[in-house]
Amino acid sequence: MPAWAAEHRHTLHGLVTEHGAVLVRGLGLCDAGQVGSVFGRLTPALMTDTEAFAPRQTYAPGVYSSTAWPANQPMCMHHELSYAHSPPGLLLLACLTAPTTGGATALADSAAVLDALPPELVQRFEEEGWLLTRTYNDDIGASWTEAFAADDRAGVEEYCRANAIEFAWQDDGSLRTRQRRPAVVRHPATGRRCWFNQVAFLNEWTLAPEVREYLVDVYGPEALPFNTRFGNGDPIGEDVVQLINTVYAEHTIREPWRSGDLMLIDNIRTAHSREPFEPPREVLVAMAAPQPPVPAPEGSTR
Asked: Cβ–Cβ contacts within 10 Å for residue 7, how many?
C-alpha cells in the first residue's frame, strides 16, 4: 500500500488541486501503522498538531485520531486550524472503522460559499478579519499543556509571541488568549478568494442551546472555552452564525465512509464537517503543507 501511494502521489495531488478533495476507495487500510506509512508517502512532511481545541490521540508523529467530540453532536463546517498563524494546506484522512450510521466527513467549496454570502458581511470580515477568544481550563476542550505541548508557562508564552497570539494568565491558573486572523484568503495555486475561517464553528451560537446555557452559567459569557467575534471585537449575532451555517448546508456534499477509505482535502479551498454518528468510528488524520502566515487586516480590537 505505501508503494501504491508513492506511485500515485502526483496523480492524487493533481486531483485535489482540480476538485478540492479526492476520496480513494478500496485500499483496505486496516491499521495505524499502515496509514502512517501511506501518509508519509503522500507528502514530504507531516505537521505537528498545535492549538487543538479538543484532545486527539497520537498514533505516530503527525498522525492523530479525530478530534474528541461527542458522537451525537455535529462538528460544523470549518477549515482545520484556520486560526493558526501557519495553517495546513492539505488534510489527509483514513477510515479504519466506518460507523454504521452517520459520521460522514462532508465537504463544502469555500469559494462558492464566499460567493453565496451577503457581500456586505463578506466585506466586513474581509476588512476586519475575525477574532478567536479562548479560555483554557482542565474541564472543557484541550488544556493549555495539551494545546501547546508545553509543560510550563514560559513555553506557552514563547509560542504565543511567535504566533501573534495575545495571552493573559488568570488568577485561577487558566489561560486566556485572543488571536485575530483573516477571514478571506486567496488560494495559493489559483488566486481565487476563499471563505477561510472557523467563525461559525467556534462561535457560542453554534453550540446546542443547553450546552451554551451551561457553559455561560459556569464560566460566564467572557470566559467561554472558545468563542468568535468580528475582528474589531464586536459580538457576532446568532443570526449571522445561522446564516453562515445555512450557506454551508446549501453547498454541502457528502459520501459515507467505508472502512479502508483514504481522503485528501485541500484545506484552503474545501471546508469539512463531521456529522453525528453511532459509534464506533475510527478516522485517522494528518496535516501537511503549512501555509505562509497571512497578516490579519489592519484595525483595532477591544
From this structure: 10
